């Protein structure tokens, strides 16, 4: 029961951190989760339970490494493979040795093997911890590729080094020849097992998909089961590195990129969403556990009379300095020795390259893997004695993690400020794709599908307009003021028309006065609701206004129903159908748009609003008016809806074809094509669900 309570506390803390992180955007989510975990231990229901250390390797490391390897950009990984391996293997080994000797020299009570284990655990970096700062920091594709590749490979090297160090600490002996032999067997065997299992998984999933046996549920369950199967099979059956097997399998598996069609897209999207939730939950759980572990480890070390608190804090600062200093020196030497890809010559260290070295140093924060490894330290040695300094080693590792996260949180945005260049580039690419899609759709217009295709083209045009405004092509505040003013003009027109109909009992067009009154009142409800939501008043006043508006709308609706029912009972007015009311509202809305367009033309000759804003709004109203006029009547609505849905599907196919052409032409890279395709797949699934 205590374990169940602990799991519920962890899950609840992860959920709470996801909400709090939205309100504290400048503090990384891992730091928030550590604080929440520490505060959770103060709750009276918090149990005094602990999870088995070996479970961390299976429950956390296996799925996280698989997902990281599966999602990494393979092309970027190959381009930066040498630099990534230099950091993942060379720097990890150098960090293990430097930290081990430093701690053993300053604090001889820590055995050298245990200090090496701490140094090995501090080798792996946590790219997930730094990714939460992406809205504040901007990393170049090369820097991001190096960090991701390093994070992938140094997990394996750090874990293997940690396991050998712990084995030495537990048994008290270490044979270099035997260790080298076991390392080679574990490395090669783990990689081979992962590749073989990945190839088998590809065949199984692709075959089941081609035969139509795959369902969303079975696909997701089998994919979630795969990393655990690979890790346990390699570790317990083949007696090789389960970590390397999981990494190799993640790099080999590719079944989610095969097949076309809405069902495949829906399955891929659901699987991606499930893995995203699982990844956040696992990473969050580890940092929550770190926060939960801190009070106990701190109190144990702090209250121990044989441990100097000042020395303990000094060891944390020393270890952080050694880890950060070694990384900066290694990255600087790597940049100095690396040759330019074009000239094949070594370059001098300019100010920009020194800043790049600092970014790569600060971007190597420690996190999930480090803490998970430290939790796997056994409680007893081979002779039955307690493992020396276990709590203190975990406390030191936790302190280093917090310091590196703080450095990444506050220094990385200063060293690499986010100018939104990548977002702007992606937005411009999306606009180009949408424009080419509209051009292709325009060439497919026929007298039979004119209305449906124009409706789809109008939706694409609106998307282009929104993207332009996001890029800053226009002043959003001034344009927003004009849009709100235009809505007020619509309200004035509809209100005047309603009052005129009530006063004279004469309706415009072929509508009856009763029908026009009801249509105008409903239109006013919609317009007033829009204005209440766009009000710039204080939140409290806006909420009160919205509540009052809701009551007035309900009161007006009840009045309409009472008047309609009374008229039917007295046989003074016929029963009004919703279709006729909808048609009358559409007619009034078209007239109101014409009125607003005339007012906008008048405003263009004045100096109140900018000319380009007036012209932009005129185009928007023209497109909306054309969309309303082209909407089908009630009699042929079903056929027109089917034509519109078919036009949507055609537009998505055109958009995907244009994206593929741009990728083959080298205009966009693999990361961009993946994101663009995912957006289209989401819209495809949404269109299918509407059917």
Automatic annotation (TrEMBL):
This protein's record includes keyword Phosphoprotein: no
BP GO terms, sorted: regulation of intracellular pH; sodium ion import across plasma membrane
Alphabetized UniProt keyword annotations: Cell membrane, Ion transport, Membrane, Sodium, Sodium transport, Transmembrane, Transmembrane helix, Transport
Domain Cation/H+ exchanger transmembrane: from-to ranges: 16-413
Compartment annotation: Cell membrane
Transmembrane region(s): 27-46, 53-70, 76-98, 156-176, 183-205, 225-248, 269-290, 310-335, 356-381, 393-416
GO cellular component, one term: plasma membrane
Main location, first listed in the record: membrane
InterPro entries membership: Cation/H_exchanger_CPA1, Cation/H_exchanger_TM
Pfam families xref list: Na_H_Exchanger (PF00999)
MF-aspect GO terms: potassium:proton antiporter activity; sodium:proton antiporter activity
Keyword Cell membrane part of the UniProt annotation: yes
Bilayer disposition of the protein: Multi-pass membrane protein
Name of the molecule in the record: Na+/H+ antiporter
């Amino acid at each position: 029961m205590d374990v169940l309570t602990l799991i519920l506390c962890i899950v609840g803390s992860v959920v709470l951190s996801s909400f709090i992180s939205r309100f504290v955007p400048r503090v990384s989510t891992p730091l928030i989760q550590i604080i929440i975990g520490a505060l959770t231990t103060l709750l009276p229901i918090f149990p005094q339970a602990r999870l088995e250390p070996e479970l961390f390797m299976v429950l956390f490391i296996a799925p996280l490494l698989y997902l990281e390897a599966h999602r990494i950009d393979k092309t970027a990984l190959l381009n930066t493979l040498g630099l990534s391996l230099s950091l993942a293997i060379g720097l990890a080994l150098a960090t293990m040795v430097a930290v081990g000797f430093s701690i053993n020299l300053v604090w001889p009570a820590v055995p050298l093997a245990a200090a090496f284990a701490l140094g090995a655990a501090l080798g792996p970096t946590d790219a997930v911890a730094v990714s939460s700062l992406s809205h504040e920091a901007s990393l170049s594709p090369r820097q991001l590729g190096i960090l991701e590749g390093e994070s992938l490979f140094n997990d394996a090297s750090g874990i293997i080094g940690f396991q050998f160090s712990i084995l030495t600490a537990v048994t008290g002996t270490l044979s270099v020849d035997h260790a080298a032999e076991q390392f080679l067997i574990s490395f090669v065997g783990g990689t081979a097992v992962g590749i073989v299992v990945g190839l088998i998984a590809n065949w199984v999933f692709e075959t089941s998909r081609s035969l139509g046996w795959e369902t969303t549920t079975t696909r997701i369950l089998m994919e979630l089961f795969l990393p655990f199967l690979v890790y346990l099979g390699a570790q317990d059956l083949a007696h090789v590195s389960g970590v390397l097997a999981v990494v190799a399998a993640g790099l080999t598996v590719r079944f989610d990129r095969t097949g076309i069609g809405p069902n495949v897209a829906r399955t891929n999207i659901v699987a991606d969403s499930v893995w995203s939730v699982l990844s956040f939950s696992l990473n969050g759980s580890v940092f929550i556990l770190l926060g939960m572990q801190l009070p106990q480890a701190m109190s144990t070390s702090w209250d121990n009379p044989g441990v100097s608190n000042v020395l303990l804090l000094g060891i944390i600062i020393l270890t952080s300095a050694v880890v950060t200093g070694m990384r900066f020196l290694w990255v600087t030497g790597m940049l100095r020795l690396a040759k330019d890809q074009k000239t094949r010559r070594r370059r001098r260290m300019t100010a920009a390259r020194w800043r790049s070295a600092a970014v790569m140093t600060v971007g190597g924060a420690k996190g999930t893997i480090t803490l998970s490894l430290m939790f796997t330290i056994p409680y007893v040695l081979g002779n039955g004695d307690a493992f020396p300094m276990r709590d203190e080693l975990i406390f030191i590792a936790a302190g280093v993690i917090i310091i590196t996260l703080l450095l990444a949180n506050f220094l990385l945005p200063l060293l690499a400020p986010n100018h939104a260049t990548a977002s702007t580039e992606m937005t411009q690419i999306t606009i180009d794709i949408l424009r080419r899609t509209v051009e292709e759709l325009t060439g497919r217009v026929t007298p039979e599908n004119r209305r449906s295709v124009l409706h789809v083209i109008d939706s694409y045009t609106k998307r282009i307009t929104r993207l332009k405004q996001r890029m800053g092509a226009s002043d959003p505040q001034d344009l927003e003021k004009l849009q709100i003013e235009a809505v007020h003009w619509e309200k004035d027109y509809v209100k005047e028309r309603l009052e005129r109909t009530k006063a004279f009992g004469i309706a415009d067009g072929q509508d009856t006065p009763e029908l026009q009154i009801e249509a105008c009142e409903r239109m006013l409800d919609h317009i007033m609701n829009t204005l209440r939501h766009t009000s710039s008043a204080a939140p409290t006043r806006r909420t009160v206004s919205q509540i009052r508006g809701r009551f007035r709308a309900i009161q007006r609706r009840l009045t309409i129903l009472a008047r309609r029912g009374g008229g039917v009972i007295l046989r003074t007015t016929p029963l009004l159908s919703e279709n006729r009311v909808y048609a009358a509202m559409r007619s009034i809305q078209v007239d109101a748009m014409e009125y607003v367009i005339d007012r906008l033309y008048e405003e263009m000759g004045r100096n109140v609003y900018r000319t380009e804003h007036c012209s932009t709004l005129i185009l928007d109203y023209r497109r909306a008016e054309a969309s309303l006029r082209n909407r089908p009547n009630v009699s042929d609505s079903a056929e027109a809806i089917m034509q519109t849905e078919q036009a949507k599907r055609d537009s998505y196919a055109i958009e995907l074809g244009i994206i593929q052409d741009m990728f083959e032409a080298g205009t966009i890279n693999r990361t961009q094509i993946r994101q663009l395709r995912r957006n289209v797949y989401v819209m495809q699934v949404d269109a299918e669900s509407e059917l």
